[in-house]
C-alpha cells in the first residue's frame, strides 16, 4: 500500500474555498516562509486511501476480540446516535452556562450514575483516560494527607499482579512504590500487606477482581489494614465490568476509584476515542476534585470549582461526548441491566474457560470472574511453542490474540476476556479454534513459529517498532 | 536450572566472574532469564562508562517487560559484548556465556553470594 504522500501529484489538491478577495489583516504576523508540504490528491483518492486503511484494521466489528483486561465489548450504535445530536455535538466549552443546560444535565447525571455504581459520593469526568484517572486519584490522596499536615506518607502499595500503569501513575504523582507479593492463588498476601503498612503509607492501589480474573475474598480485611495504618484505598476500575451493579468498590472500603468508560461503559477504545477515565471519591475528598463541579442555583445549572481543588488535569470539563455515550449506555441498561451485564461477562468467561481448560492449563484453576489466565509454560518446555506463537496462530483463524505475557506473575500467560456481548455460538466457535490451534502446535511445533500466514506482514520487529518508530514522512528519503 | 560454582551472584540476579587481573565479566543468571521469558533486546553501556555497585548499567527487554540490570561492582566498563545486541536470545540459551560487559578498575563490590547460597535464594524468590 502506498503512503498518502507517495500518491501526491502537484496541483491535484481539492480546493473548496475560493481565493481570498479581501485585504489580509494582521500585517505584522510572521507566517511560515515555506508552504506546508501537504499531499495533493483528488477526493476519491483520499477516500480510497482511508477506506483501504480501514480495511486493514481490526475491531470488535470484525470478529471475536478477547483481549484480556481491555473489555473489548461491542459499542451499541445507539450511543453514536446520542453523541451525534447537534446540541451535544456542536456545543463549545466556552458557551455560557445558560446556553449549555442540557449538556450540564448530562454531565451531572453521568456523574451521579457512576457514583451510584461505584459507591462513591462525588465524581469528576475530567480525566481523559484510565491511567490519567489513576494519576488524578493519587493526587487526591496526596492532597488529603497534605491538608492534614501529614508529610510523612510517601509510599503507595501496589500488588505484584497490578497493571503496569499503577506503579507508573504512583511514580508520576511523586510517590515511592512498594511492591506487595501475591499468594499462591493470586490474591494479595495479607501477611506481607500488614507488614508493609505503616506511618509512611499514603495508600494502596488495587484491582478487584484482580488481574488474574479472581475476586479477592479478603478485600474487606485488606482495605481495613490500610485504613488502620492511616492510608487510603484506591480502586483501579479496570475490571469493574465483572461486578458493576452487584458489589460496589465504595462498600469494599475504597476511598477513590477510576472507571474506564471505554471498557465498562461501551464507549470506543483507541482510534474511536477519545478516552475517558472519570474519578470518584468519598465525601471527605470531594473538595479536592479537579474539573468543573455542577451546582443548581435558582433553577439553573452552573459550573463551579471545588474549594481545595488539586488543579485541572486537562483543559475544560471532560471528553464530553464520551460521557454522553456512557450515560446513554447506563440508561439503556438501567438498574436491572447493569448487574445482568456483569453476570453475563462472568458467565461467558467461565463457559469459554471450561470449554478449553483440558488443553490449556489455567494459571489458577477455579471459577473466574470476567476473564481467565492460561499458562502455556508446559507447552513451551515440551515443544518450544510459546504463548506468542499461539497468539499469532489465532490471527490466521480470525481471532484477535488474547493479552499476552500479563500479568507478570504468570509465565507464558494468555489472558482471555470474551465480554458479555458475545453470543454462545461465537464462544463455541472460538473454543473450537483455540483447541485446533493447540492441537496443531503440538503436532507441528516448527510450523507454529511461522504464524500468522494470512496477514500483510507476518511478524513485525516489535522491539524496533517500539524503540525506533518511523512516524514522520521523510521527503528527502522516501521509503521504497 | 544451573548455577556454576566458579561464579558469584547478586540478590538482583546478576552473575559475576572475576578474572585474575581484578577484572570481572557480568551477566544475568539462568533464574533471571527464566523469570523474564524470551529476551528480545538488550541496552548496553559504552566502553569507558562508570559502573556503580548496586546501580543499573543496562536494561533487558523480554516479551513481558523491560528490566534494569544492576552492576555488582563499582568500576569502569572495559569491554562491551556487542554481539549480544544482534542475538539477545543468547541470554536465554546460554546465560553464563552471554556476558554484558567486562569491568575493570574495581574499587567496590556488592554483597555477593556463592552458587549454593544463590540457588537457595532463587528458590525462595521463584
Describe this structure in words.
The complex is a heterodimer of chains A (480) and B (126). Chain A has 480 residues and is an alpha/beta fold. Chain A is built from 16 helices and twelve strands. Chain A folds into three domains: 1-56, no CATH class; 78-332, Aspartate Aminotransferase, domain 2 (3-Layer(aba) Sandwich); 339-465, Alpha-Beta Complex (Aspartate Aminotransferase, domain 1), CATH 3.90.1150.10. Chain A is 37% helix and 11% strand. With 126 residues, chain B is an alpha+beta fold. Chain B has a single domain (18-119), classed as RNA polymerase II/Efflux pump adaptor protein, barrel-sandwich hybrid domain (OB fold (Dihydrolipoamide Acetyltransferase, E2P), Beta Barrel). In chain B, the strands form two sheets. A six-stranded antiparallel β-sheet of chain B has the order 1-2-3-9-8-5. Chain B has a three-stranded antiparallel β-sheet with strand order 4-6-7. Chain B is globular and about 35 Å long. Chain B starts with 7 loop residues before the first strand and ends with a helix. The mean pLDDT of chain B is 94. Chains A and B meet through helix 16 of A and loops of B.
Count the strands of chain A?
12
User: CATH superfamily of chain B, please?
Assistant: RNA polymerase II/Efflux pump adaptor protein, barrel-sandwich hybrid domain
Please state the average pLDDT score of chain A. 94
**What is the ordering of alpha helices and beta strands of chain B?**
EEEHEEEEEHHEH
What is the CATH superfamily classification of the largest domain in chain A?
Type I PLP-dependent aspartate aminotransferase-like (Major domain)
Indicate the CATH class of chain B.
Mainly Beta
- Secondary structure class of chain B reads alpha+beta
| Topology of chain A as a string of helices (H) and strands (E) | HHHHEHEHEHEHEHEHEEEHEHHEEHHH
The helix/strand class of chain A is alpha/beta
Number of helices of chain A: 16
- Helix count, DSSP H or I runs of 4 or more residues of chain B: 4
Q: Pick out the low-confidence regions of chain A.
A: none
Amino acid at each position: 500500500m502506498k503512503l498518502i504522500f507517495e500518491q501526491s501529484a502537484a496541483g491535484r489538491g481539492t480546493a473548496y474555498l475560493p481565493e481570498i478577495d479581501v485585504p489580509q489583516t494582521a500585517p505584522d504576523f510572521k507566517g511560515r516562509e515555506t508552504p506546508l508540504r501537504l499531499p495533493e490528491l483528488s477526493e476519491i483518492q483520499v477516500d480510497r486511501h482511508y477506506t483501504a486503511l480501514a480495511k486493514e484494521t481490526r475491531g470488535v466489528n470484525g470478529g471475536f476480540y478477547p483481549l484480556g483486561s481491555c473489555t473489548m465489548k461491542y459499542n451499541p450504535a445507539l450511543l453514536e446516535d446520542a453523541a451525534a445530536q447537534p446540541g451535544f455535538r456542536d456545543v463549545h466549552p466556552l458557551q455560557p452556562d445558560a446556553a449549555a443546560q442540557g449538556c450540564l444535565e448530562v454531565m451531572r447525571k453521568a456523574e451521579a450514575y457512576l457514583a451510584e455504581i461505584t459507591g462513591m459520593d462525588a465524581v469528576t469526568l475530567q480525566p481523559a483516560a484510565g491511567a490519567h484517572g489513576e494519576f488524578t486519584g493519587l493526587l487526591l490522596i496526596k492532597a488529603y494527607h497534605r491538608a492534614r499536615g501529614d508529610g510523612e506518607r510517601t509510599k503507595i502499595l501496589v500488588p505484584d499482579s497490578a497493571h503496569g500503569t499503577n506503579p507508573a501513575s504512583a511514580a508520576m504523582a511523586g510517590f515511592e512504590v512498594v511492591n506487595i507479593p501475591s499468594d499462591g492463588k493470586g490474591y494479595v498476601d495479607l501477611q506481607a500487606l500488614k507488614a508493609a503498612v505503616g506511618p509512611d503509607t499514603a495508600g494502596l492501589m488495587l484491582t478487584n477482581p484482580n488481574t488474574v480474573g479472581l475476586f479477592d475474598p479478603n478485600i474487606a480485611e485488606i482495605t481495613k489494614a490500610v485504613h488502620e495504618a492511616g492510608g487510603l484505598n484506591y480502586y483501579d476500575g479496570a475490571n469493574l465490568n465483572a461486578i458493576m451493579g452487584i458489589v460496589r468498590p465504595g462498600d469494599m472500603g475504597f476511598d477513590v476509584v477510576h472507571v474506564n468508560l471505554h471498557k465498562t461503559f461501551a464507549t470506543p477504545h483507541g482510534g474511536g476515542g477519545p478516552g475517558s477515565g472519570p474519578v470518584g471519591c468519598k465525601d471527605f475528598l470531594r473538595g479536592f476534585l479537579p474539573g468543573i463541579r455542577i451546582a443548581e442555583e435558582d433553577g439553573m445549572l452552573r459550573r463551579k470549582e471545588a474549594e481545595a481543588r488539586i488543579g485541572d488535569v486537562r483543559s475544560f470539563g471532560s471528553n464530553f461526548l464520551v460521557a454522553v455515550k456512557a450515560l446513554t449506555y447506563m440508561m439503556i441498561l438501567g438498574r436491572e441491566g447493569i448487574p445482568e451485564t456483569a453476570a453475563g461477562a462472568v458467565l461467558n468467561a467461565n463457559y469459554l474457560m471450561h470449554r478449553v481448560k483440558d488443553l490449556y492449563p489455567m494459571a489458577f484453576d477455579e471459577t473466574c470472574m470476567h476473564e481467565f489466565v492460561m499458562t502455556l509454560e508446559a507447552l513451551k518446555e515440551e515443544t518450544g511453542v510459546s504463548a506468542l506463537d499461539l497468539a499469532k496462530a489465532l490471527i490466521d483463524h480470525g481471532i484477535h490474540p488474547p493479552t499476552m505475557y500479563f500479568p507478570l506473575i504468570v509465565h507464558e500467560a494468555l489472558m482471555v476476556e470474551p465480554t458479555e456481548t458475545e453470543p454462545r455460538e461465537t464462544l463455541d466457535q472460538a473454543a473450537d479454534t483455540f483447541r485446533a490451534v493447540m492441537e496443531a502446535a503440538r503436532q507441528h511445533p516448527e510450523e507454529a513459529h511461522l504464524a500468522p500466514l494470512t496477514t500483510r506482514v507476518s511478524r513485525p520487529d516489535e522491539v524496533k517498532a517500539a524503540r525506533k518508530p518511523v512516524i514522520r514522512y521523510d521527503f528527502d528519503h522516501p521509503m521504497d | 536450572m544451573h548455577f556454576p560454582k566458579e561464579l558469584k551472584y547478586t540478590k538482583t540476579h546478576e552473575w559475576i566472574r572475576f578474572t585474575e587481573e581484578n577484572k570481572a565479566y557480568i551477566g544475568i543468571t539462568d533464574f533471571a532469564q527464566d523469570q523474564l521469558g524470551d529476551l528480545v533486546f538488550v541496552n548496553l553501556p559504552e566502553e569507558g562508562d562508570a559502573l556503580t555497585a548496586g546501580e543499573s548499567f543496562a536494561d533487558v527487554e523480554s516479551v513481558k517487560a523491560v528490566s534494569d540490570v544492576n552492576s555488582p561492582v563499582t568500576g569502569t566498563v572495559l569491554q562491551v559484548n556487542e554481539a549480544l545486541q544482534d542475538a539477545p536470545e543468547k541470554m536465554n540459551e546460554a546465560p553464563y556465556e552471554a556476558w554484558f560487559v567486562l569491568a575493570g578498575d574495581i574499587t567496590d563490590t556488592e554483597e555477593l553470594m556463592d552458587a549454593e547460597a544463590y540457588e537457595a535464594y532463587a528458590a525462595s524468590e521463584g
